[in-house]
Amino acid sequence: MSPPHSALSILLSAALVSAYSFTFTSKPQQCANLSLQISGSGKPPYSVLIIPYGPSPLSNNVEVRTIVSQQFPGDDSSLSFQLKFPANSQFVAVVSDSSGFGSGGTSVAASVLNSSDTSCFNATHSVSPDFPYNINPANQVVQCSPSRLWWTPSQVQGTPNFQGVIPGGDSFSIPVGTITNVTDMGTGFQWVPTVRDGTTLLVVSGDNRGLGTGGSDLFTVSAGLNPNSSCATNTSPSSTAGPPAGGSYPTNASGGTTSGSSGSNNTGAIVGGVVGGLAAIVVLGLVAFYIIRRKTGPKSQKERPVNLLHGDPDDNEPPSSYQPPPYLQPDPYLVTAPTISSTSARTDHVRNSALLSDSLSSAWRQSAVTSLSDPRSTTPELDAGALTPPTTALGSSRKSGMSRQLRAVNIIQHEDAGPSSAQEPAEPETIELPPAYTNLRKEPN
């Protein structure tokens, strides 16, 4: 039956914590009265603890602020007292009732506004707490790692008390464990912080003279070299996700305020939810469109191996507008007969020889051009045996102006002789050249 009982206790504690709240009914102002109002069903008497937060705004870092603990008169739910804090300084307020410390909530760091009254503090004299306290390891609070809180007994009245304050979050009393005396670490006890790492934490000390008489220190809880979260639970002190306590009050020197209303937080959550929902709908729509397109779209042709011996069946079908090229119609090759006629019947031997040489060269060039321009024809007339000088019939043919004739074309189909036999020694090749006509002499007259 213990688990249900524990759960019921947690629910009842939460109900008590949220049973009442407080608000600032006046803006914090230098040397002016600060007013608070309790609303809800708390258990009087009520009290408020004002803790300095952040550095001093005065020159030379003069600290004139002290921790203020004020009791509400009797069972009253309202309180007004003079705030002896300089302008542009900050503080955190914690309201409690008879049910426990911090049951009414904790404000965020509130800023003090300026005024013309400076009579409530001495700007050249720093104040100090009634007794100092120490923490070991020094200047740090590590999540779930033991720390020692200690003091000098001669400076304390009664047994010291310690509180943990999280600005804008939970505030709690630090349980005092077994008090021991340790050399070089005075009188004190061991404390295991259950506050999660990254949390801003104020440790406040007091004694029989009141809360906060030992001063306060500001820490940021760390995870340590070997992070350990075994001590942290759902009920561990933390910064609350909702609006901070205290209602509306300035949080900076320019007068910007914070509000206890949760409407802005709800609006942000609603906007975030709407944007997230729209983004999810867009993503789902794109996925559905992609799937439908893949199913209904034209199927891509699958890859096929390439066969160079057999073409693609689709390649054998000519397009509808395909026109086959016309067959090659060979034209007969026309050999132009020589038309050069001799104007004189009497030519000497030298002139005939020169003419024969020119005619032979012309015939040779004509044969070369003919063989290059028409591969079907063979070399015209200029065989190995045709390189001999022409006879006098050439001269008569020039005179007679022969008509153009069609020349027959012989086509020879060669057949493969098959594998060659053993190669026989090559016979010497004979190349015949025409006479150079370099040893011509004039006949004597």
UniProtKB/TrEMBL annotation:
It comes from the Eukaryota. Residues 230-263, 300-335, 371-445 are annotated as: Disordered. Residues 251-263 have a biased composition (Low complexity). Residues 230-241, 371-380, 389-403 have a biased composition (Polar residues). Residues 1-19 form the signal peptide. Gene3D superfamilies: Single helix bin. Keywords: Membrane, Signal, Transmembrane, Transmembrane helix. The chain crosses the membrane at residues 269-292. This is Uncharacterized protein. It comes from Boletus edulis BED1. The lineage of its organism: Eukaryota, Fungi, Dikarya, Basidiomycota, Agaricomycotina.
